[in-house]
Write a structure and sequence with these properties.
Oligomer: single chain
Mean pLDDT: 84
Strand order of the largest sheet: 3-2-1-4-5
Distance between the termini: 21 Å
Number of helices: 9
Strand content: 5-15%
């Protein structure tokens, strides 16, 4: 994940989250990374006591994201909005629907195995958003190299924009292979290596593009879709119109199979490859 960054921690991308340093933790006897089991999600349900609790789970997850997702100086320069917009032909002030299409490793490994939503469904929902809000431009983030061309054929009346200087074919993994494995030098020779630096940069670029849009089509079983939507809400300081093609927003990082009126939900079973 950290590629060639020597620090090997989140400081490679983000501003410091606290004054607590790795050295200070080691001085207190804390060693190694924090590993959270797949089934542990209850701590994400925390909200402050008292009157502030009424703001709800989404508000407090958003507050957390707003604090954590503060890019360091290096990545702030690399994610210059004017340069990125110019690179795909997206003018400032031009309203757009953000569309996330995930057709990569998760379609062949876990709970979404053989269940990923086709491009046609995404385009159908993008058309709904475009007609409702008078938008003619769709900004696409995807790991599917064929998705944008397919979308253009399906909806020629819309203008589809995406980053073109990254070979998304490299994000297509074999059956049962996670992208993380392909970024691990000790493992990737078996399954095909991909550059962690490139994956990190273009993931951040796709997130940035989606966060600048005015409406959203994605799938909330994906953490990237959830994060992109929260970043867009943070930027606009209001909820944006959205359509999820495969499930509800979750307050934790797993997938929610059932949600109730009070916001609680059941954890979907995690299915290994």
């Amino acid at each position: 994940l950290y590629g060639t960054c020597a620090a090997r921690d989140f400081g490679c991308v983000f501003r410091p989250w606290s004054n607590c340093t790795r050295e200070a933790l080691r001085g207190r006897g804390a060693e190694g990374p924090l590993v959270v089991p797949h089934t542990v999600v209850g701590h994400y349900d925390w909200t402050p006591p008292g009157a502030l609790r009424r703001k709800g789970r989404f508000f407090w997850r958003l507050a957390t994201v707003a604090h954590l997702f503060r890019l360091n100086d290096v990545f702030e320069r690399r994610l210059d909005e004017d340069q990125i917009r110019a690179s795909i032909g997206w003018r400032r002030g031009e309203r757009a629907v953000g569309m996330h299409i995930r057709h990569g490793d998760s379609c062949r490994t876990n709970i979404r195995r053989d269940k990923c939503v086709p491009v046609e469904r995404h385009v159908q929902e993008a058309r709904v958003m475009a007609e409702l809000y008078g938008i003619a431009t769709v900004v696409v983030a995807t790991d599917d190299p064929a998705a944008v061309d397919q979308a253009r054929e399906l909806a020629p009346e819309l203008r589809f924009l995406t980053l073109s200087d990254f070979d998304r074919e490299t994000l297509q993994s074999g059956d049962g292979v996670y992208l993380e494995q392909r970024m691990d030098p000790a493992y990737c020779r078996k399954v095909g290596c991909v550059s962690p630096d490139e994956v990190l940069l273009f993931t951040l670029l796709d997130l940035a593009l989606l966060s600048w849009t005015d409406a959203f089509v994605g799938h909330f079983t994906s953490n990237l879709s959830r994060l992109a939507y929260m970043l867009a809400v943070r930027r606009r300081r209001r909820l944006l119109p959205y359509i999820s093609v495969d499930g509800p927003w979750c307050f934790h990082w797993q997938a929610c199979c059932t949600t109730r009126s009070d916001g609680s939900s059941d954890l979907c079973p995690f299915v290994e490859a």
